[in-house]
Structures are given as C-alpha cells and as structure tokens.
Design brief:
five-stranded parallel sheet, alpha/beta, single chain, 629 residues
C-alpha cells in the first residue's frame, strides 16, 4: 500500500512521468485509508498524468453538501471521478447545513454554481436521534414531514441551478430497527422506511434536474458495515469508509453518464465468454449453453447482453476463431440467445485482437474510449490493455458464474435515460455499415449524395423528443458550438417559451433511418435570433445536413422580420468541426468582448437571404411533409 502512495508522490515532482494505471489500483484497493490519503495528494497534480493516454478529462464542478461530516468522502470521490475520465473541482459545505445551503439563493453552495451537487444524507435527517422508533405513529409523521422539507429544499435549489442534483435512498441502521422489540412493529417500521425511500426515488420523476441512486439496494450485495460507530460518535461520520468508497463509485458512474462519457459498444470474446468451451476443439454441438451449470452461466450472460442491446448498447465480437464455425453457431445453435443480427460487427479471425478492436471502432466511427472489451483470457486482456489503453477491459476470469457480475459491476454503459433512438441503435448502425460499403463503390461525392436520397425532418421539441435532445447535447463533443450542454430543465423551459425554440432533426436515406441526430437551441430577439447551441452526431458528418437545418432556421427567421442570426461559439479543444461549419456558412466574428462564459459571437446577415441547403437533401418540417423550396 505504501507503494501506491509513493506512486502518487512521484507525480507531484517536476517532470513526473504519467501513471495511467494508478487510478484503477486506488479505486479498488481494500486499504481505504491509503486511498483517502492518495486522493488528497491527487488534488495537487495535473489530472493528465493519471488519465488514460489519448483521452482528455472532462472538467466538472462538484458540490458535496450532506447531513453529516463528509470530509473523508471527497478524496475518494476525486479518485473515482478521475478514473471515470472526469477532472473535478470540489466545494464541500459544512456538516448539518444541508437544508440551509440548498434553500438560500445566496449560499456558498449557490455561488459555487456546481455542475453536479451530491447530497450524502443519513437517517437522522428524517428520524432524529431523540425520536423513539417504537412510537410508530410519530415516526411515520416525522418521516412524511421531513421528506417534504427535504423535497422543498432540493426542488428550490434545482430550479435555480443550471446543474444537476443527485440524491439517494437512506439505509436504516440495524440499531434503530432492533430498538423495536415486537416483530409486527418492526415490520411497520420497515414499511414506513421503505415508503420514505420510495419518496426519495420519486424525486427523479417529479423534480427537474434531480436524479436518485438506490444506495439501500446497493448495500444488499456489499459485505460492508453501514457505519463505524466509534467514528460516528467521535466525528459525526455516518458512513463507514467502505460505504464511502461504494458511494464514490456510484457518483463517478453517474457523472460519466451526465457528461456523455458512457461507453457505447461492448466487444465480446466467444470461447469461454459467450459460451463455454472452445468452438474449434469441441465443435458447435458440444459448446456449453442451456439450463445446466456451467452452460446456464453463459446463457444468463447472453440474456443480459441482449438487455443491454435493447437499451442502446452496441454489440460486437472480437474472437480468434474459424469465421465459418462462428457464423454457423450464431445462426443455427438452438441454445444461442444472441444471433448475427444482434451484432454490429463480428471479427472472427486469427489476427491479434487489438487490431480487431481498432477495426471495429473505425467501422463504427467510434472513439476507442467508447469500447468495452470482455474476454476470459488474461493474455488477451493484457494485450489489449497495453496496445489500446483507451479501451476499457473487463477480465472474465475464473468461475463463469461470476462473469455476469464482473461485466455489469462497472456500470460502463449507464446513461441518464433511455430513448427510442437508443432502442433502435443496433439497426441504425447496421444500416450505417451497409451505407459505408455502398459508399466505397462510388467516387463522385455529389452524385453519391444525390443517389443516397437523404431526407431531413426538422421537428420542434415535445415531450417525446426532449429526452433524446438533452442526451444528444450531453454526448456530442465534435459538432457542439459551445462544448457544453443545456440541462433538461433549461431545454424544457425553452421548448415551452414563445421567446425560444428547440429543434431536433432526424435523417433517413435509402438504407433506412439514422434517427434523431442533432438539435438546435434558439433565443428569439426582436432583430436577431441567437443560436445558443447546436449539436450533431459525428455519424452524419460530410453530408451537408447541418446546412439544410440552418436553412430551415434562416427561412423561419426571415419570415418573422429578423435581420441577422447570431451564434455562440466557445472552443472546447474538440469542436473544430462546429467552428468550421460556422465559417463555411458565412458567419463572421462579432466585434465585441466574449460573453461571461467565454463564448464569442458569430454573425450571419440575412439580407440577402443566404441559400445554404444542398440540392441533394429534401427537408421536411413537423408542420408539413412537403420539402422546402
């Protein structure tokens, strides 16, 4: 354990060499005291020294405001967030100021303007220490009143902040429960407590900008004590170090989803991963699948993989195997749950697996950091980890009964919400592969685009489109005018305002639908419209789609008497394509100082009206299915 601290200390020295393997070791060390000290030291180093090569950590302002002393939680949060590719700036409020900090519009918390506010809370926020848990009528009233008080404070803060608030369910310590002697009374207390936790989970459904983690459920499988009673009595530390570490991991997973850094593609080995046995040696008829152990372990993994696919995770195969045998099993084996059409790419060959993964990423136009690779072979995991450090590697070693837990435990694919586009993603990407194959046979770009038959439908945001639009804003990095995202609350407010417009646009062509691929946020002023942000998926680059959408905005603006468009632009280091689009469309830099958020203005005069929509694109709006002329 001293070695871990030595590695951190070396990073503080001038000219330190990067140590990208350090964070994983710290996040999983059983010596939480060492991890906590390392987390404090990490505050003094450049985050680039510990992040994976080829990745850029995402800055995030994180506030921690709790009902107990959470000083020791912050270093563990720093480790978990850095490991998730997020560079945090923290603000910690004093203990026992939770409700005041949330409620006061001028509190230190409000002035910090966090992107993410986490609220670690314990049972005494709802059931005071001097309350008698056996007085069940009083307990129920207390829980209801205090839940309402907490909800009011959270809702007030969520309304004012542009960030997101994360709450969680609260475990009831056994000491409070065992104070009640009668089993029937214990059952009533348990029921009342679960109603409280159900109310906390409901925050995510009824309060904009608020999400919830079910900490009580997570602890059911964690062999850790909720509390160290000595630390609690001595320093008001309501959670044991192990629970703090577990919570930090959950916050990091949520922050990864919040910042659009969730993984997108699961690449699976086959032999002893998707089925038991070695296909080439055992033959298709003898691989292990079905209802008996160990085959049922692989069957359950396949069932879970299909559930991931149905929620938008892309599936691919990278296996050293005979491609003909693999095709046979995927198409014909009666015990297989996943089949050829469930995968967007199948690389079954005898080449090194790092090459197969690189080819999959290239075919799907995904960054390597979007891939998760699962394999039972320690050799292959080590090879991919060294050759492609951006790829997340999940070793599936040992008893196959543990493979599913190992695959899911990292929450690599967790997102804020699942949309219809997510559920159709496999079909969309398979059509994309066919589109690329067709493209390779054509050389003249304009003729190719004309033959492609591109149709763009621009729609105003409604309740059905809002989740996907918000998701696109959070996930899109290259074509993103500001490098930032409007929150769900901001987007919903703009969509319902006559002074604003939120547009989403869909694309289809001869190969099928691409789905919702982009969005525009507009503020309407008397003489000009301001494009506050515009995002578009990289999968539809180089087709002129952004110009067709801009033409729709121009036409509507001119019809209302607007004389110019303005666009906010802020360089993120990754949004060069968005800046090029503005220049190509004719926007010029405004002669004024940057806005308070660092963004600059680009201006496009509308007299004479620009004509930007490419001839090969048919544009439709939600008011009419006729193409614009």
């Amino acid at each position: 354990m001293d070695d871990l601290l030595d590695r951190v200390r070396r990073l503080i020295e001038p000219g330190a060499e990067p140590d990208p393997a350090l964070l994983a070791a710290l996040a999983h060390t059983p010596d939480i005291g060492t991890a906590r000290e390392a987390g404090r030291l990490l505050a003094r180093i450049d985050s680039a020294l510990v992040c994976r090569p080829g990745t850029t950590p995402h800055p995030l302002r994180v506030a921690v405001t709790g009902s107990f002393t959470a000083d020791n939680l912050v270093p563990l949060l720093r480790i978990s967030l850095l490991a998730a590719g997020i560079d945090p700036e923290f603000h910690l409020t004093p203990p026992d100021q939770l409700l005041m900090q949330l409620s006061d519009p001028d509190s230190a918390l409000a002035r910090f303007a966090p992107d993410l506010t986490v609220c670690p809370i314990h049972e005494e926020l709802f059931l005071p220490r001097d309350a008698d848990p056996a007085d069940l009528d009083t307990v129920r009233d207390l829980l209801t009143q205090r839940l309402d008080l907490f909800a009011t404070a959270v809702s007030a803060f969520a309304t004012r902040t542009a960030g997101t608030v994360l709450v969680h369910t609260v475990p009831l310590p056994q000491i409070r429960w065992r104070t009640v002697n009668a089993y029937r009374s214990r059952a009533r207390l348990g029921r009342a407590w679960r109603e409280l936790n159900s109310g906390l989970l409901e925050f995510a459904e009824r309060i904009d900008n608020v999400d919830a983690v079910d900490l009580e459920l997570l602890l059911t499988d964690a062999a850790v004590a909720l509390r160290d009673d000595r630390l609690y009595r001595f320093g008001s530390m309501a959670w044991s170090p192990a629970v703090e570490q577990l919570y930090a991991g959950q916050v990091a997973g949520y922050a990864r989803a919040l910042t659009g850094r969730a993984k997108k593609c699961l690449v699976l080995d086959l032999d002893n991963t998707l089925w038991g046995g070695v296909l080439g040696d055992d033959g298709p008829e003898n691989i292990e699948l079905g209802s008996l152990y160990p085959g049922n372990a692989y069957t359950e993994l396949q069932r879970a993989v299909l559930a991931l696919r149905d929620q938008g995770v892309l599936l691919a195969v990278a296996s050293k195997n005979d491609p003909a045998l693999v095709a046979q099993v995927l198409a014909e084996h009666p015990e297989m749950l996943v089949h050829t059409d469930d995968f967007v790419a199948v690389k079954a060959n005898w080449e090194p697996k790092d090459g197969s993964l690189a080819a999959i990423a290239a075919e799907l136009n995904l960054g390597l950091d979007s891939l998760v690779f699962a394999d039972d072979s320690a050799f292959e995991c080590e090879l991919v980890g060294r050759a492609l450090p951006q790829v997340t590697v999940v070793p599936l070693a040992g008893d196959p009964a543990g493979h599913l837990g190992a695959l899911l435990s990292g929450d690599h694919f967790a997102v804020l919400t699942t949309t219809d586009t997510d559920r159709q993603r496999t079909d969309l990407y398979r059509a994309r592969v066919r589109r690329q194959e067709w493209t390779s046979s054509r050389s003249a770009l304009d003729g190719y685009l004309t033959d492609l038959g591109i149709e763009v439908t621009v729609r105003r945001a409604d309740e059905y489109l809002l989740p996907r639009i918000v998701q696109l804003g959070g996930r899109t990095n290259q074509f993103n005018l500001t490098g930032r995202a409007h929150t769900a609350q901001q987007t919903r407010r703009m969509a319902g305002s006559a002074e604003h417009a939120v547009l989403g646009f869909e694309v289809s062509d001869r190969f099928g639908r691409e789905g919702m691929v982009g969005a525009v946020w507009i503020a309407k002023h008397t003489d000009h419209w301001l494009i506050e942000n515009a995002v578009m998926s990289c999968r539809v680059f180089a087709r002129g789609i952004e110009f067709a959408v801009l033409q729709t905005v121009i036409d509507e603006a001119v019809a209302t008497g607007v004389v110019r468009l303005e666009a906010a632009f802020r360089s993120s280091g990754r949004n060069g394509p968005a800046e090029k689009f503005l220049a190509d469309a004719g926007f010029v830099a405004a002669d004024r100082a940057p806005d308070s958020d660092g963004s600059t203005r680009r201006i496009l005069p509308l007299d004479p009206r620009p004509a930007l929509s490419p001839a090969w694109i048919s544009v439709h709006t939600d008011e009419s299915t006729k193409p614009h002329v």
